[in-house]
Design goal:
The structure is a homodimer.
Chain A: H1 13-18, E1 19-24, E2 28-33, E3 40-45, H2 58-79, E4 83-88, E5 98-103, H3 125-139
Antiparallel strand pairs in A: 1-2, 2-3, 3-5, 4-5
C-alpha cells in the first residue's frame, strides 16, 4: 500500500543524494543507501517537521514501527543476514529517518556500527536493480 | 508500573557490568550506561530468547516502543538535550536492548554516533545518584 506525502513534505537533499528509491509505504518512503558495503535501508515518514521519534503523533509512530518491522523482515528474508541494526540518529540530517541495516558477522564494520566506518561504495546498476526489485516484490510496492 | 521478568530472564553480564540500575518498567529493565560522556539509557525487555526487534511478539514490540517513547521524553526533559539517538544494534551483546541517548551539539562524539568513539568515563557517585533519582521520579519507578 502506498501512501501520500503530507503537503509540503520534501525529502532531505542529503538523503536523496545518498540513496536509491525503493518506493513508498503507507507512511514512509523507503530508500536504499547507495553503499554496497551493507544492505542498508532508510525509512522516512512523509511528514513535515519531524526530527525525533517523539515528535511523531502516536498513530504515526505506531505505523512507522510497523513499517520498520515489515522492512526488517523483508531485508532479512532477502539477505539472510545474521543481525539487524535499527536506529534513529539524525545528528547530521535532521529530517526524521530510521536506518534498517542487514549485518553479517565479518562484514566491513563488524561488530561495530556502520556509520562513518568506511567510504560508501556505490552499487553497480545490476546489483542495485536486483536488490531494489527484490525489495519491491516483498514490500508489494508496484512502482518507485 | 513495574513488571515481572519472564521466568529464566537474566540480564546479559556485559550489560550488567557496564550500567547502573534505574529500575523496571512493565516490560523493560531500564539501565543507565556508566559513561558520563553521554546521558545514555538502555532498555532491556525482560524476556528470554530475543535478539532483534522482529523477534518480539507484536504486543511486546508495541509495549517496548511505548517505553522507549516514555524514557526518551524523560531523558529529554531532564537533560534538555538537542537530539535523541535511539538504536537497537546488538552486534556484540545479543540480548535485545535499545539504546536511548541524549545528544548535545558539540558533545564528545558529535555529530557521529557514540559507540566506540571514546572510553567510558564512569560517573562519580553523586552525579550517578542524582541522574538515577531524577529518572526514577519521572518514570514513576519506586525502587531500583
Amino acid at each position: 500500500m502506498s501512501g501520500k506525502p503530507q503537503d509540503g513534505f520534501e525529502l532531505d537533499p542529503q538523503l536523496d543524494a545518498d540513496t536509491l528509491l525503493v518506493g513508498d509505504l503507507e507512511l514512509s518512503r523507503v530508500l536504499l543507501a547507495n553503499d554496497a558495503n551493507f544492505p542498508w535501508l532508510i525509512l522516512v515518514p512523509m511528514r513535515t517537521g519531524l526530527a525525533d521519534l517523539i515528535d511523531a503523533v502516536p498513530d504515526d509512530r505506531a505505523q512507522l514501527m510497523q513499517e520498520v518491522d515489515t522492512v526488517s523482515r523483508a531485508l532479512k528474508a532477502i539477505t539472510g543476514c545474521d543481525k539487524l541494526n535499527v536506529a534513529s540518529l539524525g545528528n547530521m540530517v535532521r529530517q526524521l529517518h530510521v536506518h534498517v541495516i542487514a549485518r553479517f558477522e565479518g562484514d566491513a564494520a563488524w561488530p561495530g556500527p556502520i556509520w562513518g566506518k568506511l567510504p560508501a561504495k556505490p552499487y553497480d546498476d545490476d546489483a542495485a536493480n536486483k536488490l531494489v526489485e527484490a525489495l519491491r516484490a516483498r514490500l508489494e510496492i508496484t512502482s518507485g
